[in-house]
Design a protein that fits this description.
The structure is a single chain. The protein is α/β, with parallel strands linked by helices and 553 residues long. It folds into four domains: 206 residues, DhaL domain (Serine Threonine Protein Phosphatase 5, Tetratricopeptide repeat, Alpha Horseshoe), CATH 1.25.40.340; 87 residues, Alpha-Beta Plaits; 113 residues, 3-Layer(aba) Sandwich (Rossmann fold), CATH 3.40.50; 103 residues, Hypothetical Protein Tm841, Chain: A,domain 3. The chain contains 20 helices and 16 strands. Strands 13-12-9-16-14-15 form a six-stranded mixed sheet, covered by helices on one side. A four-stranded antiparallel sheet has the order 2-3-1-4, sandwiched between helices. A four-stranded parallel sheet has the order 6-5-7-8, with helices on both faces. Helix 6 packs antiparallel against helix 7. The longest helix is centred in the first third of the chain and has 22 residues. The radius of gyration is 25 Å and the shape is globular. About 5% of the residues have low confidence.
Length: 553
């Protein structure tokens, strides 16, 4: 049996479904370089494009492999996702002009895939997804040459067994894995994809299901410390090459430059695009240098120290669907001013709409919308000037990128890093004054807000010198952990001791989906005693993750 275009299409789709079904298991294994818990999601999203219209694609093996590789490269997210996409890109290069692939072609394709993946990583680390890929391809080639493998089914079964064996050895290669008691998450994700491929070869392709529970134990993060993170910002972008740089491997100088800016470098220099990933302390310089080679297609910058801290803020579990889609395509402009706001919770959404927001994008701390999501919301706002309220510092960059590429509208991104700041900005808006006056007034209102938030720890961990136990309530002031307690009300009492605001005129208690109005009223009485001259309101925000969000102005 040889592999033709339709068979390869089914193999790749089955691999994507296998990853989708097991992404939570992969997430729970994530431990290196920082415990950000999103490896499974990144790998699944990388392959998600092939689970759509690709299922109807018809072509020979070369055409199908090329189409699959392009879909994955455009959709690649995170370090492991990029490596996975490059593996399939290498296969497509090896099979260029091929109608079908025999066993020798398969081994050649997989070896080329490993080569492409390694080329993008400046300093490969043994014990990761790369090791699992490489040993699998090398042992398969040796077995084929020795005559041990007699047919296509046996070849893929051998490769899967080899990958699993190497995966089991990764804790001995990386001490951080052994310390946490897990195998490499990216390697596990690759084995998961390979299981999907083998299932398709055997005639039983995997189908994606709605909800699948994790089947593994989560990594133990108790001994991790954010001070150990040398480079704080995970920086990724895709650059659409300008005409000057069209062609493969034309951006060697950029590759060399980012190699000196940090670690965990992954670099793809394709004919039409550049895709880069680096952990650095100067993300702005990386993006500026990348812009010399063309225009930005996507940008993502994440603070890894904040990601680590979020594990103790109840934000370790990423959602199944990150964003509620806004209407697609631009609409006719019918007014001068419009608003786009990002928030979570039905109560917050209704409040923003009551305040005049045109489009509310569902997102926040654990749900980061993309540049395309923000742009779509802007284009569906019928206004000449659109104010964007990110309401979270991790959404600021994508909002600014959306502002740059938006057409037919002027987009102003306000620096709101919490929902209470966004609400205060809306209350300060005056439709009868000029844009600059509104910007000044809204920024002034934002600066007067102190945001308290109450969540819970999902596991035992250590933040600095603070030992936090699973199940404890955590109190934060403007995003920083200030106290922990097993009693919510007592946690808020402790939290108020860390608030510098002496005099307040307005206080709002927004209770979340896991809180109740009676307790929220009890908390409002505590706040009334603290701020006797302030009006204290209790509002159902309906937000997940955070039991209470409290605004003090």
């Amino acid at each position: 049996m040889n592999i033709n275009g339709n068979m390869y299409r089914d193999m790749v789709i089955s691999a994507a479904c296998s990853l989708e079904n097991n992404k939570e298991t992969v997430n729970n294994l994530n431990v290196f370089p920082v415990p950000d818990g999103d490896t499974g999601i990144n790998m699944s999203l990388t392959m998600s494009g092939v689970r759509g219209e690709f299922k109807n694609f018809e072509g020979n093996l070369s055409e199908t492999a090329h189409k699959a590789a392009n879909l994955m490269l455009r959709g690649a997210r995170g370090n492991s996702g990029v490596i996975l996409s490059l593996f399939f890109r290498g296969i497509s290069k090896a099979w260029k002009n091929c109608e079908e692939a025999d066993m020798a072609d398969v081994v050649r394709g997989f070896k080329r895939g490993v080569s492409e993946a390694y080329k993008a990583v400046m300093n490969p680390t043994e014990g990761t997804i790369l090791t699992v890929m490489r040993v699998m391809a090398e042992t398969a080639e040796q077995a084929l040459n020795d005559g041990v493998i007699v047919d296509m089914n046996a070849l893929f079964a051998f490769m899967l067994a080899s990958a699993k064996e190497t995966l089991d050895k990764t804790p001995e290669m990386l001490p951080v894995l052994k310390q946490a008691g897990v195998v490499d998450s990216g390697g596990y994700g690759f084995v998961t994809a390979l299981e999907g491929i083998v299932a398709a070869i055997e005639g039983n392709p995997i189908i994606a299901v709605e909800t699948v529970k994790s089947t593994s134990s989560a990594a133990n993060f108790e001994t991790f410390n954010t001070d150990d993170i040398k480079f704080a910002y995970c920086t990724e972008c895709i650059v659409t090459k300008s005409e000057k740089y069209q062609g493969e491997e034309t951006a060697g100088a950029l590759h060399k430059y980012i190699g000196g800016m940090g670690d965990s470098v992954v670099f793809v220099d394709d004919a039409e695009i550049i895709k880069l990933h680096v952990h650095t302390n100067e993300p702005g310089k990386v993006i500026t240098e990348a812009l010399k080679y063309g225009s930005l297609y996507t940008v993502k910058i994440e603070n890894m120290k904040e990601q680590h801290s979020n594990l103790s803020e109840g934000a370790a579990e990423a959602p199944e669907a990150a964003v509620e889609e806004a209407p697609k395509g631009p609409v006719e402009i019918t007014k001068k001013y419009g608003f786009v706001a990002v928030s979570m919770g039905d109560g917050f959404k209704a409040l923003f709409e009551d305040l005049g927001v045109d489009v509310v994008v569902t997102g926040g701390q654990t749900m980061n919308p993309s540049t395309e999501d923000i742009l779509s919301a802007v284009e569906s706002t019928p206004a000449e000037i659109v104010f964007v309220l990110p309401n979270n510092k991790n959404i600021m960059m994508v909002s600014e990128q959306a502002a740059k590429v938006a057409e037919d509208r002027e987009v102003v991104v306000l620096g709101t890093v919490s929902v209470p700041e966004g609400i205060s900005a809306m209350l300060a808006f005056d439709p009868d004054v000029e844009k600059d006056d509104n910007v000044s007034a809204m920024k002034e209102a934002i600066g007067l807000v102190t945001t308290l938030s109450v969540t819970y720890a999902v596991r035992d961990t250590e933040i600095g010198d603070t030992q936090i136990r699973e199940g404890e309530t955590l109190g934060l002031v403007n995003g920083k952990i200030k106290c922990s307690h097993f009693n919510r009300v007592q946690c808020i009492r402790d939290l108020l001791e860390n608030v510098e605001t002496e005099d307040a005129v307005a206080v709002a208690v927004y209770y979340g989906e896991d809180a109740d109005e009676d307790q929220a009223n009890d908390i409002s009485e505590i706040l009334s005693a603290k701020y006797p001259d302030a009006e204290v309101m209790v509002i159902n925000g309906g937000q997940p993750v955070y039991s209470y969000v409290i605004s003090i102005e």
